[in-house]
Design brief:
The chain is an alpha+beta fold. It has a single domain, classed as Jelly Rolls. It is 18% helix and 26% strand. It has helices spanning 2-9, 45-52, 83-101, 155-158, and strands at 17-20, 36-39, 60-66, 105-113, 128-135, 140-142, 162-164, 170-174, 188-189, 200-208.
Length: 211
């Protein structure tokens, strides 16, 4: 009987990441205890069709700043059906970041890669970052964000359960530069592509406040 009472009175662990049911619920990233907040959604299937049909077989990286009333240029990516849908989705994600953070611009990085860009568990030295995968396996993050951070390659971390984003999922990752978060930050990594010859396409968006 005593053991039963102890179990019922135990305080459950507070989750350090959340997968929210609605886009508006991404504001839960502002909870001090939350390091990762994501929202699963369906994206225009023409985006993946477009990316899969691109003639570029090598890696491509696009870097640009997105300002209000300006569309992404996506220099280096050829035209084709689905390109407009990709641009419209990037504008939506820019709006998400701008509304959440009150920033006037967003730094975009679009990468088409055939390898794990950041394969080890790590924390970004940023305030907050939005990540979305359009093609290939999604970003992974630790289910338990309260693990020891002095050595992210330790056995406990390496063997820990992880969550993986699905295609199109909006993932917000806090970094060490988020106010009051210098000892924390979302522990995440790029997925292993294995022997697959296909490319992975993802974007990151960082809030900017140009002077």
């Amino acid at each position: 009987m005593a053991k039963t009472n102890m179990a019922s009175d135990a305080t459950p662990a507070v989750p350090t990441w959340r997968r929210v049911p609605e886009l508006a619920d991404l504001t839960e990233i502002f909870d001090p205890g939350v390091q990762v907040c994501s929202w699963q959604r369906e994206i225009d299937p023409g985006i993946e069709t477009y990316l899969s049909g691109l003639q570029q077989t090598g890696e491509v990286q696009v870097l640009e700043n997105l300002f209000p009333a300006h569309q992404p240029k996506l220099d280096g990516l050829a035209g084709g059906l689905g390109r407009v849908a990709l641009i419209q989705d990037l504008l939506l994600l820019r709006e998400v970041v701008s509304e959440l953070l009150g920033c006037t611009a967003v730094g975009l990085r679009l990468a088409r890669i055939g390898r794990a860009m950041c394969p080890g568990w790590h924390v970004d030295r940023v305030g907050i970052r939005l990540v979305c995968t359009y093609q290939g396996p999604g970003t992974q993050w630790l289910d338990d964000q309260d693990v020891e951070r002095c050595d992210l390659h330790a056995a406990k971390t390496g063997g820990g359960a992880f969550i993986q984003a699905v295609l199109g999922e909006i993932v917000l990752l806090k970094g060490t530069l988020w106010e009051g978060n210098d000892a924390f930050g979302a522990i995440h990594r790029s997925p292993d592509l294995g022997s697959s010859a296909s490319l992975r396409t993802l974007i990151t968006l960082d809030p900017l406040w140009p002077g």
